[in-house]
Specification:
Shape of chain B: globular
Largest interface: A-B, 37 and 28 residues
Strand order of the largest sheet of chain B: 1-4
Radius of gyration of chain B: 12 Å
Helix content of chain B: 10-25%
Order of helices and strands of chain B: EEEHE
Strand content of chain A: 25-35%
Number of helices of chain A: 8
Structural class of chain B: alpha+beta
Shape of chain A: globular
Oligomer: heterodimer
Radius of gyration of chain A: 23 Å
Largest sheet of chain B: 2 strands, antiparallel
Number of strands of chain A: 30
Strand content of chain B: 15-25%
Structural class of chain A: alpha/beta
């Protein structure tokens, strides 16, 4: 038998008899499992998830669910096909033994794999003071259970809600509070909402939206302490400007933390920004050597992107999860020549205060912004972000039909300011500084981040085996 | 029945809204909100909404796949 035939035989055998384990049972894990079956993988498939719930959709949690329209348990994801997997739900992976190719579970089980997909995503950043974190009435939002608890708290008509952090999710929650007629204060450390992902020019517009809707928005302040009553329920918040606020509900919306701890000792390039992988979703080890059998996708993946100087990009978007899952699945059952890259043009949306905000590209990679269409005053506009004379991102407020146009320009590395679209142009289309915060500021981390060129330098840390 | 609307893909044409108003709604001019788990009485309406979308952004699981029987 020729070598080629031998290798083909190997692929066929793996597809029929291989063992694939997916760690992470959310959007990425489910869509990867479906894609593996679509690819003709008929071997054993195990999906491990720390939550007891089957895969569910998260974006509705901060909107329809908190509003009380949709019960928290009703966002389970539609299945695109049968996956015939062994679901291990409600039991977290706690370790990875690469020598024996086994995933270690919290209940002591060891699950063997031939190929592994890491899709453990992120969790919400907890309250920084562990004593205060025990207070009742203090929440974070990431899971369906979180959303159920916050929805119940909103429904109980609190006198004032405090949202700490005005990123997309914090802003969406403030919007829901106003829809429900609740008094809400938003405390944001930087100069305006959404400054991390979209810069200060757009941030000022978002701030006006919040204030016009009746949000008590306080910027440039931190929440330094929370105080509880005798029953251990939060009642007051101490702000850095000296204000003491009376609050009944506090939602900390402080961004996310990557779930990498279970990989301690596995010597993968894992760290603050997630697990580094190549554009084909293969994980790097701590020395920057690509692995053959370990793949990464979803919020925890960090991969180099051709459009952004080959910097490693970490993306917390639905789109990136779905497309990454498909690419990882494809590459898990194909050899070199058949492999595909996962090079998504980042896309996101946020519904808040009756405005549909959509973005494409990496706005925070830019340093200039130009309004290209519509009217800021009417909250109906498009704006492009540029760096070094080329367009790198775009944002629309109630102008989503034009996003594709800008997406194409970004893919082509078109000049900045971009050529006028010839429709609905604003009177004054001059580029100006986009006013992104100093990246060293500990606030406003955008949900698409460029994290440098090296698989290990800026994100990874050496996490030795426990002895 | 389970649905998810790909809101990256959705361009706010809102063709779906009048066809299944209990399931798909607009917040403001173009922000779509939806009930991800519509009642089975809405099958016909959801099927029409899915078919009406000019960019095919609505993903619906009308019936559960063979490996899952629960709601």
């Amino acid at each position: 038998m020729s070598t080629h035939a031998l290798i083909d035989e190997l692929v066929t055998t793996f597809k029929a008899e291989g063992r694939i384990v997916i760690v992470g049972a959310s959007l990425t894990g489910l869509r990867a499992a479906e894609a593996l079956r679509d690819e003709g993988f008929t071997g054993s498939l195990t999906i491990i998830g720390d939550e007891v719930h089957e895969p569910y959709d998260r974006p509705p949690l901060s909107k329809q669910v908190l509003k009380g329209w949709v019960p928290a348990g009703n966002t389970k994801l539609p299945r695109l096909r049968a996956v015939d997997a062994d679901w291990r739900l409600g039991v977290a992976a706690v370790g990875l033994d690469r020598d024996n190719r086994e995933v270690l579970l919290a209940n002591g089980d060891r699950v063997p794999y031939d190929r592994l997909l890491i899709a453990t995503g992120v969790r919400s950043r907890g309250w920084f003071n562990p004593e205060e974190a025990k207070l009742r009435g203090l929440y974070t939002l990431r899971t369906s259970d979180d959303a159920a608890a916050i929805q119940a708290a909103f429904k109980a008509k609190p006198k004032r809600v405090l949202i700490v952090g005005a990123g997309f999710i914090g802003s969406e929650m403030a919007s829901v509070c106003r829809d429900l007629g609740l008094d809400v204060t938003v405390a944001e450390r930087s100069s305006a909402p959404l400054v991390g992902p979209l810069g200060g020019v757009i941030g000022d517009i978002a701030a006006k939206m919040q204030r016009d809707a009746g949000v008590d928005l306080r910027t440039g302040v931190a929440v330094e302490a929370l105080k509880g009553d005798a029953d251990g329920h939060v009642r007051q918040a101490q702000l850095s400007d000296g204000t003491l606020l009376d609050v009944d509900v506090v939602v900390a919306s402080l961004g996310s933390v990557r779930n990498i701890e279970w990989l301690d000792g596995a010597e993968l390039a894992a760290g603050f920004w997630g697990v580094a992988c190549d554009a084909g979703c293969r994980a790097f080890d701590i020395n920057g050597v690509v692995t053959d059998n370990i793949f990464v996708a979803g919020d925890i993946a960090r991969a180099p992107h051709v459009l952004y100087e080959y910097q490693f990009m970490a993306i917390e978007h639905v789109d990136a999860a779905v497309l990454g899952a498909r690419t990882a699945a494809h590459n898990m059952v194909n050899l070199e020549k058949g492999r595909r890259p996962h090079l998504p043009l980042p896309q996101f949306w946020s519904g808040q205060f009756g405005v549909n905000i959509k973005g494409v590209g990496v706005c925070s990679f830019g340093d200039e912004i130009v309004f290209t269409q519509g009217s800021v005053e009417d909250l109906r506009f498009a704006a492009a972000f540029g760096k070094n004379g080329r367009i790198v991102g775009a944002i629309t407020f109630n102008h989503g039909k034009w996003l594709e146009y800008y997406g194409r320009l970004i893919e082509q590395s078109a000049p900045f300011p971009p050529p006028p679209p010839g429709y609905d142009e604003p009177a004054d289309a001059k580029p100006m500084p986009a006013r992104f915060p100093d990246p060293r500021e500990p606030t406003g981390i955008p949900d698409v981040v460029l994290t440098g060129h090296d698989p290990t330098s800026r994100g990874a840390e050496f996490r030795p085996k426990a002895r | 029945m389970r649905i998810v609307v790909d809101l990256n893909r959705c361009l706010g044409y809102a063709q779906c809204v009048p066809l299944a108003p209990e399931v798909l709604q607009l917040n403001g001019e173009e922000a779509l909100a939806y009930d991800p788990n519509p009642d089975d009485s809405q099958r016909q309406q959801v099927a029409r909404a899915v078919a009406s979308c000019p960019v095919q952004a609505i993903i619906a699981e009308m019936d559960p796949p063979s490996d899952r029987s629960t709601k």
